[in-house]
Amino acid sequence: MRDGDKLRLTGPAGAPFVVTVGPAFTAEYIEERLRTGEWRQSEDAPTSAPAQDQGDSGQGDGDGSAGPPDPRRPSVNDPKSAWISYIVSLGHLSAQDAANYTKADLIEMAN
């Protein structure tokens, strides 16, 4: 474990996260958390790739292609109204129809 290494870990409640070895999380600190069982290494443990931004699903523009994500696509943390506007801009539904769906439904529809 060296400075700059990114590790995929699981916290005490089972939530996955990525930590970068460095001043904030030294190798000794991480090793202590792993030794005590507070953190566990994920199956795909160390990674040199940067952590994916949590606000983007990374699934492209929803048409099954591996192209870049749509820059208009709202973050999953954005309000339902942003998702309604996005779905309407894609031409999937009218604003009145989209308002009848849950935010989760609208996000799924955009995938």
Evaluate the radius of gyration.
Answer: 19 Å
Number of structural units classed as domains:
2
Strand order within the widest beta sheet: 2-1-3
The helicity comes to 25-40%
Q: Uncertain segments of ≥5 residues (pLDDT<50)?
A: 45-62
Instruction: Estimate what percentage of residues fall within beta strands.
Output: 15-25%
Q: What overall geometry do the principal axes of the alpha carbons give?
A: elongated
Termini Cα gap: 37 Å
Order of helices and strands: EEHEHHH
How would you characterize this protein structure?
By secondary structure, this protein is α+β, with helices and mostly antiparallel strands. The protein has 2 domains: 6-47, no CATH class; 57-111, no CATH class. The chain is built from 4 helices and 3 strands; from the N terminus they run ββαβααα. A 3-stranded antiparallel β-sheet has the order 2-1-3, with no helix packed on it. Strand 1 (6-10) and strand 2 form a beta hairpin. Helix 2 runs parallel beside helix 4 (103-110). The radius of gyration is 19 Å and the shape is elongated. The two termini are 37 Å apart. Residues 45-62 have low confidence and may be disordered.
Kindly list the characteristics that best describe this protein.
single chain; 111 residues; alpha+beta; 2 domains; three-stranded antiparallel beta sheet; 4 helices
